Amino acid sequence: MKRAAQTPMPINIRALQARDRKPWEALYRQYADFYQSTMTDAILDRCWSWLMNPNHAVEGLVAEGENRQLLGLAHFRACPDPLIAADFGFLDDLFVRPDARGLGIGRRLISGVAALGQERKWAVLRWITADSDAQARQLYDKLAQATHWVSYDLDLQRLRG
């Protein structure tokens, strides 16, 4: 259910904090469900440990609404690009609660990551999405240019086994 025509609620985009564990976990489980990806407690624990470790590459922003309620998340990291000898930003995960979609939260989370990338002198902010995610792609097409690159995954666990 979209809430686009309602009075805008105050949204705060901020860094993920230790106090956010339970609401972050609920959001991240919904994100995994959306992409039909298996989510376990071990995956959640490891990802959370990365996000809480200031020396790990993965960072997180959240969208906080009224009463400190988390409405969305963004996970991102810097990646070196040898071809241009510069870092670029990679947006790994972006999710907004279904009942909070249409309020500009996804756009604000991407803008928050982009602002950090500008401060850090990243050359570009890059992300991928499922070609079937039409709602997200409507936003992405307004903010960024789709590329001609095709993505491949080589299952290294299967090669070992």
From TrEMBL:
Residues 11-161 form the N-acetyltransferase domain. It comes from Comamonas piscis. This is GNAT family N-acetyltransferase. Pfam families: Acetyltransf_1. SUPFAM superfamilies: Acyl-CoA N-acyltransferases (Nat). GO terms for molecular function: N-acetyltransferase activity. Keywords: Acyltransferase, Transferase. InterPro entries: Acyl_CoA_acyltransferase, Diverse_Substrate_AcTransf, GNAT_dom. The keyword Metal-binding does not apply.
